[in-house]
Design brief:
Strand 7 and strand 8 form a beta hairpin. The chain has 15 helices and twelve strands. Strands 1, 3, 4, 5, 6, 7, 8, 9, 11 and 12 form a ten-stranded mixed β-sheet that branches. Strands 2-10 form a two-stranded antiparallel sheet. Helices cover about 55% and strands about 20% of the residues.
């Protein structure tokens, strides 16, 4: 074993007569608190980003194929026709297992005898995966839009239901303006949902795709867009670009008679994503502050421990111990404090985060934060990188007081005792 390491291991921390318990406690608590705050910041910010992305992806398609432009009449249309040729191009360009669904977003007006409001009626392929929508239902049921007799059923948010004084089973008039003609339907409320995403809760009404096709006067193969979901978030840009190139190539080869534009959630939800990116700045500021606090407490505590061992330093220097030898002893001594603080901080921090993850004891105001509880998400590599980073930074910081100790004059150190 290295001699310096052997000596540092036999320097007791905080024992009576051989060290300052206060200095040790302050150092360990300082590191532990810094680690806890940084772990809280990582888990909560990551959870918040994930929660917002999940809600946004529930209402907006991750990638969309829009109505064609540049057809034979060089015009445009509000609808596309989901032909086998288009299906072949789309499915070849998106990941296997992605959910491709026909969708219509039809503006309309909900109206009762006392009030009215403009909304977006969202109809999607009935065979699609509606896990997000079903998870948000708080009353009633998800309409069976594949049923021939369910075209008049809708799912509205609780906020809209409260405004119109509607309940499950109640009926409400819906008004649409199609090519200058006014069309009215009487819909039945099958259920109420709450997503806590106010902008969408106040405007999105789930309806039958077939019913909206009838309102628009189009056939069963027509849709406003093809919505593609189930793509990993970090692959959205790549998939969007690949799909755009595939559609361009198909148009150039005349496999498709028109070019279909492609849009993605990175653009349609840019306002939210730009807001989420600002959180990264907050994380960086918190990390810098916490590392500064931990570094200050470590340096202060190690200086105290060094002052209490001045005579030991003098003896070691007098018998031939080099400055590097002394520096290594006290860096190792300081790292023992860091490891103790890391252990305490990880146990306490991860324990509290697990409690919040599974019990959701800390609530949030959903009208302000879009979430009803403080979100927590664990990304293992982030926590490992955090701990490694704390160790590296602490080692660099401890070089300051350890360097001071190594420059102690042996004769003066021995005489001072």
């Amino acid at each position: 074993m290295n001699a310096g390491l052997w000596i540092s291991r036999r320097m007791r921390l905080g024992a009576s007569g051989t060290g300052s318990p206060a200095a040790v406690v302050i150092a360990v608590v300082g590191v532990a608190l810094a680690v806890m705050v940084m772990e809280f910041t990582l888990a909560i910010v990551t959870g918040f980003k994930s929660g917002i992305r999940e809600k946004l992806s529930g209402f907006e398609a991750q990638v969309s194929v829009l109505a064609p432009i540049g057809g034979h009449d060089c015009g445009s249309s509000d609808f596309l026709t989901y032909t086998p040729e288009l299906d072949s191009v789309v499915t070849s360009a998106v990941p296997a297992g992605a959910d491709v669904r026909m969708a219509i977003r039809q503006p309309g007006i909900l109206k009762t005898d006392d009030d009215f409001q403009g909304v977006i009626f969202l109809g999607q392929s009935p065979q699609s995966d509606f896990d997000f929508e079903r998870a948000n239902i708080v009353e009633g049921r998800w309409p069976d839009f594949a049923c021939d007799t369910c075209d008049n059923e809708i799912l509205v948010s609780r906020s809209l239901a409260n405004r119109f004084n509607l309940g499950v089973g109640d009926k409400v008039f819906s008004t649409f303006v199609i090519d200058g003609n006014v069309k009215m339907r009487r819909h039945k409320v099958a259920g109420l949902y709450v997503s806590n995403f106010g902008e969408y809760d106040n405007s999105v009404v789930y309806a039958s795709l077939r019913g909206l096709q009838k309102v628009a006067g189009v056939d069963s193969l027509s849709a406003g867009s093809l919505d593609i979901r189930g793509i990993p978030f970090d692959e959205i840009g790549e998939v969007s670009g690949a799909l755009r190139n595939a559609l361009l190539d198909a148009t150039a080869r005349e496999t498709l008679d028109s070019y279909y534009p492609v849009d993605d959630i990175l653009r349609t939800g840019a306002l939210y994503f730009n807001w989420l990116e600002l959180l990264d700045t907050n994380v960086a500021v918190i990390f810098i502050l916490m590392l500064a606090v931990a570094g200050f407490t470590l340096v202060s505590s190690l200086f105290i421990l060094i002052l209490e061992r001045v005579r030991t330093i003098g003896v070691l220097r007098a018998i031939g111990g080099s400055r590097a030898f002394i520096r290594a002893i006290f860096i190792d001594l300081g790292m023992r404090l860091v490891v103790m603080g890391l252990l305490a901080g990880n146990v306490a921090g991860l324990g509290l985060l697990l409690i919040q993850k599974y019990t959701r004891v800390l609530p949030l105001d959903p009208e302000m934060y879009y979430l009803d509880a403080v979100p927590v998400e664990f990304v293992p590599w982030q926590f490992m990188a955090l701990n490694v980073g704390v160790i590296v930074v602490s080692w660099l910081i401890l070089a300051i007081p350890a360097g001071v100790a190594s420059h102690t004059d042996p004769s003066k150190a021995i005489e001072s005792d």
